[in-house]
Amino acid sequence: MHLATKHLLGIRDLRSEDIQIILDTAQQFKDVLQRPIKKVPSLRDVTIVNLFYENSTRTRISFELAEKRLSADTINFSASGSSVSKGETLLDTVNNILSMKVDMVVMRHSATGAPHFLAQHIPAAIINAGDGINEHPTQALLDAMTISEKFGSLKGVKVAIVGDIMHSRVALSNIYLLTKMGAQVTLAGPPTLIPKHITSAFPVQVTYNVREAIEWCDVANVLRIQLERQNQVLFSSLREYNQAYGISKTLLQSLNKEVMIMHPGPINRGVELDSDVADSGQSVILDQVENGVAVRMAVLFLLSGRKDPSA
After folding, report:
1. Distances from the Cα of 111 to the Cαs of 53, 62, 90, in angstroms?
2. Which domains does the chain have, with CATH numbers?
């Protein structure tokens, strides 16, 4: 099984066949992670640098754990405390790292397109761990894996993406992936947080009524309010946002069905998601975290060109 791409820069660039290959390979690695000995030598002698120009906890730890489970050699780079703070350019930083014979780069950056820039200038395989407000492909892949495990397939599943669509790279990657794989997608949230012409760019529906979206969907993927990316006031207050657009136990109990609740984290508890919903039996948030390691193992393995994932 091979991907038709050397890099993972975004879901936009993947074929539906590539997405399925990654999900199938991730399932094999998830089986490996259930073993008493969770480590395989699949990427022995492969050197991977984790290049994080933005703060991250879950994504960084997940990639690091995936690399260790595959027996890769890893280098962790953080922009703070590095020569970047002295004015070194991105390309100089990476060229210096590559001179140490690095095979793959996992990159998170606040600038949209930064991983694409690197892919044009260096020979190593690049994996986008989140760039600006553009894409976060491995998050969409782990979300897809989590939905597939519950429903058997993505085709025909009704997914509501709720919250700050405007500033969310998770939302964009999910929209690309879900629509490519045959799911139905509705976007829900305040008018100020949903791009105006998104329905002309993607085969999605939009509603500003969260109850309407929750009544329609099988799965609600609830997004964090990206306060750090908003340069103007887009809603009156967090309390009022919670009352109008937050997912509460009361809302879910008023339905005549059970909706699967997802969240990419970190959760603003009491804002987009109430604690008793995040910790309920309907929530698969911890399953998403577990699947994140398997998906990232799959992506690293497939881009390495190695043959046997369970070796």
Report:
1. 9, 22, 11
2. 11-136+290-304 (3.40.50.1370), 137-284 (3.40.50.1370)
